[in-house]
């Protein structure tokens, strides 16, 4: 799609260093939290005693998933920008093509439109 808005040219890399650091930091914090909750919950005798550790592990796993989703969405966005840039360059480079369709003035009508179904069945 060609728009009047100009985007910066897409970079060669899918992610910037800051995005990788953010996702890596969230992932490492989540992994440490998951291991810590696993270790802490393993010493509890009943499930009731270990509920807090399970909640902590779920939060830690959510951090890991959040980091992965962040990287995926940023990568998909950069890929879409690169695709749009390539399409715009092709549209600028290729000459316009004129397409002409001819529609006859009188089209033959199908038989079903000329007579009711009951009259066609009697013939």
TrEMBL record:
<feature type="transmembrane region" description="Helical">
    <location>
        <begin position="53"/>
        <end position="73"/>
    </location>
</feature>
<protein>
    <submittedName>
        <fullName>Uncharacterized protein</fullName>
    </submittedName>
</protein>
<keyword id="KW-0812">Transmembrane</keyword>
<keyword id="KW-0472">Membrane</keyword>
<feature type="transmembrane region" description="Helical">
    <location>
        <begin position="20"/>
        <end position="41"/>
    </location>
</feature>
<keyword id="KW-1133">Transmembrane helix</keyword>
